[in-house]
Every structure is written in structure tokens, then in C-alpha cells.
Amino acid sequence: MPKRIAICPGSFDPITKGHLDIIRRAAGLFDEVVVLIMVNYTKAATAFTAEERVDMARRVTRGIPNVRVDFYAGLLADYAREAGACTLVKGLRAVTDFEYEFQMALTNKKLYPKLETLFLTTDIQHMYLSSSVVRQVASFGGDISEFVCPEVLQDIVARLAPGPPGPVRREPQT
Predict the structure, then answer these.
(1) What is the CATH number of domain 5-126?
(2) Residues annotated catalytic, as ranges
(3) Which one of 23, 104, 135, 141 is at 20 to 30 Å from 112 when CA atoms are compared?
(4) How far apart are CA 103 and CA 67, in angstroms?
């Protein structure tokens, strides 16, 4: 029987405990899981370089034997075909995620008909969590230790934490 390979694609800017939950669960379902760091062309910039995101993903998945991390800047369907993957695994937090992910699943299926998409609902403790939330909280000096793995916490804080506080500007009361 051929090896069942799944891909967990995303920008992972940065990788969160919510991402890791989906990756671990996918690893229990497939022979091999590729955490595929990708370029999100709808975002103007990323907080971390591709190399940094790959490194962080490798550190947090180190203890999961059937997971490997890779980077790709092309079409996901092309990567899946070349890797011999049968499934894309995507985490869903809310109905709003589904609308976008459903459109992407149909597009990938059209580009590579053998590719299925499996949606895993996010664990309730991570429903609010996203890379954007982590970046925002960290950029204001908030505690993100509950949102990200200890292996990458200091990297994220070092990159995103604000400098010394400046004067507080308040809008005039009208």
C-alpha cells in the first residue's frame, strides 16, 4: 500500500499552538505530514522570513517522527502532485474560515483532481488564536506564552516586542 502523505500548508507567521494541534492530529491520521511553509501573496509582508518560519516549524515539530517541514513558493496543487500527497489538511476556527478554505479546496481539486482536502475543527481552546493575534499581542508587549510553543517564544518576542514606551497620545474629548 502506498504511503499516505498529507500536507498542512500555511504561512505560519508565526507558528502557533493552534497550528501545532492540527499538525499533531494530522500526524495521527497519515503516514507522513508535510508542514508546508508558503508565501501568502495577499499579504504585503511577513514578520518572519521564510527561513525563520521553516526553522520555527522544525523546532516545534521535532518530536513528531512522521512530520517534516518544507518551503514552497508556487502553486500548492503542483507541490502536492510532485510530493505524491493525497490530502491537504486545514484547520477551521469558525464559519468565516470555511468560506475561504472551501474556495481554495475546490480550486486545488480542479488543478489536481487526486487531491482531497480534509478540514479539522480547531480545538476549542484555540478557536480565537491566529498568527495575526500573536503578532498584535506581541507588538504591544503582551504575554504570548499561552499562544506559542516555548521553543519559539523568545524568537517571536525578540522580533515583535515594542521598544521602550513613548508618550501616550489621547484623542481630545468632544
Answers:
(1) 3.40.50.620
(2) 19, 43, 93, 131
(3) 23
(4) 26
